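Table 4 source record.
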Amino acid sequence: MTEGKTIVVTGASDGIGAAAARMLHRDGHRVAIVGRSPQKTRAVAAEIGVDHYVADFTRLDDVRELAGELSTAYPRIDVLANNAGGVFGDRAKTADGFERTFQINHLAPFLLTKLLTDTLVASNATVIQTSSVGARMADTLDVDDLDHDRNFGPVRVYNAAKLENILFTRELHRRYHSHGLSAAAFHPGNVATSFGTRSESRLMRFITTNRITRAMLTTPEKGADQLAWLAESRPGVEWESGTYYEKRRPAKRTNRQADDAVLARRLWDRSEELLR
């Protein structure tokens, strides 16, 4: 690394995002963190000494306002790390009318990226999606029912959203790599964070809060390693744009739908339609 980058990390009020922000700031980058909780986000920012922004991804107007603030504050953004996400339980629609897990994990970061596209392209930026090995278990994706109104299950919609992260990465690469933008998705590992603790799913709460199961999980710092690596290293040299990574290597196995270029385009087009 020679010159510090300007790096925006969402979902950075704790867990992987906060750990990555600490690493990147320590390495000399200009980091801006985004979080849902004003108190937690402000505390992490004060601890590290970085800029911070508050946005609740269950409200798309928050995302639009965030994009405007970031565009004004940073004429150049070298890395956008779409790390915010979560798994919940009972069906809940946001104020925007979308299923909560779908909006937080896919639609909101899709919107943020779209709104920042001009800045990102001009910066030859990297866009990083925090996906999950859960994408492997995703059912057949129905782009006409992304809210899962016909087939809801808390883990099912989460797995679908993580597959959508990979498909978004593929299509972002296809559309904009020739203009200088690079994109990657990654699985951070099974990390012991607050992720999943707000879920109404008994299984997810057990996994993320039980002392025995948490002992088998990795640390936020280890989970953040790949995010920091993708942010700091050179696409086309250390990693390939449009690719989904596990343990700093292209994933050997994921959902067969993840490589479906037609599905990736349909997801992009449908996401744009939903945001009109």
